[in-house]
């Protein structure tokens, strides 16, 4: 008779063996089904291409591979799992717009969002569940709502500018070196706090701030070996997100955000402001008007965590890259400053931000094109599915690709947005003028900019983010000029951040001078 003490160990061992066998079976079947798809041979038996991707310039191998193998290729991840990389425009349209709910986020990505944010709109899958959550958030991020929030964007921009002016004054000269990425993150947090929740995080006071440091620390340490293991393995073993120091950091950040979100929601319910213009008031109004749309507190807190996080990481990265590109090009910076000053002494309106500041719009479009904050758009085939292609895979005549159930696929945004066939031979060069040339020539391609994705699951806060960033750039250009004395490189944390070449965490020290 088996000892009762040994029984749990035997059950665990049997379960582990079963799961491992199923994993191997899936790897073998997927490999056979995709054997006609070209791609690089694995550079590591254990890690596949993950080591190369992690330790190289973000996106560089995707560019190299697609130049060599075409618009559809496969590569190997950790422990042999297959990944499809797709830049074919017909396939992208099908995946993102036509059959979007057949391609959910991979299990590892969903586990990350659940562990860090909860079961909010970035985690939820399925048409009905997603549309329910999107309906709850969309009114607060609509064009009408963002129009009303523009004064708040300028207010937080002025607070950041005042802090920079204080730094320069304390230097007893007309200029000072300022580390931009820290301030960009704090600006993004204060803006979403005030605009979405009427809550002042007070991140721009200049002192230490627990929330800002917690959120920054969660993803701004990707140079550590432990971060590589987590990134390489969470696709196939999502439970790794709960292990070790990184797992503890994830729990701490989620708790910190959750405590703040719960307090904001309780305060909003006590205030009972149904006539406000922020996210909280709009949610309260919708609940009163449509009781069936009502979310419980756990769901609401998850949405609030998600809103704060989405407003922090991508926005702060875009701000940093915009200031970096302006710091490299004094002529462009001066031309943009002239456009801003010509708009008048008052703060440009929502209509000005969206339609009338043409050079500012072109600069931001070019930043999004060359520095997309999210490098890869990841999905997983929910079932075995046939995907249409604009051209057959090399060596075949098939105008479609059958993707086995469970296959992870990714759309490398940087490859799509620097395609020479679309953008010309200078596709790798930062040149905002190209947007005027394209408009004059009547050029318009689908999926020109995928930085916010597209289709039913595109970024709901795109308009909010673009207006807030433009408001900040306008405010800063009126008061400062920028130069960059360091060699800067891109590195991948959760988003693509800048840093001084060879260093660890994000860093963008600029020489900021009064004008």
TrEMBL record:
Pathway: Secondary metabolite biosynthesis; terpenoid biosynthesis. Keywords: Heme, Iron, Membrane, Metal-binding, Monooxygenase, Oxidoreductase, Transmembrane, Transmembrane helix. Gene3D superfamilies: Cytochrome P450 (1.10.630.10). The keyword Metal-binding applies. Its cofactor is heme. This is Cytochrome P450. The lineage of its organism: Eukaryota, Fungi, Dikarya, Basidiomycota, Agaricomycotina. The keyword Membrane applies. Belongs to the cytochrome P450 family. It is found in: Membrane. It comes from the Eukaryota.
